[in-house]
Amino acid sequence: MPATRPSQSLPLAATVLTGTIALYITLVAFGNITDFGTNQAFVQHVLAMDTTFKDPDLMWRAVESRTLQNIAYVLIIIWETAASLVLVTGTVLWARGLRGPAGHAGARRVSTIGLLMVLLLFGAGFMAIGGEWFSMWQSKSWNGLDAAARNVMLAGVALVVVQLRGTDER
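User: That's the sequence. What structure does it adopt?
Assistant: Structure tokens below.
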């Protein structure tokens, strides 16, 4: 394998990280579409708050309507699918940029949008709204906070790498 020039190291890292998250979110969306019921139950239980401590001061937040629960779940799947498409596009743009001296502005821009979508889904959606507003942290059986934190961490690291500029881009 030929040695990688220092100026190619950052774009290569950005390509690999963006591609890894693109693969992950694509598989998540695909799984939610092809096995709709498994995570549908997760969303329903979190929104219904039926496995929390059932503190009366918090239970007014519960969403018990199956229709609203299913709408929320479908919106999550649509968001995951959109993030997947954006990140796959970003990965392709990074990979194309590895072949020549072309700038990486387009790849950086598209990847940033996709990574922010992932951060919004898992950080704002699952950790803040699910974890705090719907008290998911109280549930022993329907608690996705650890998985959400892993996704936020990986997407955050990728976002930092994507934003770094090589010496040839300064």
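The radius of gyration is 19 Å.
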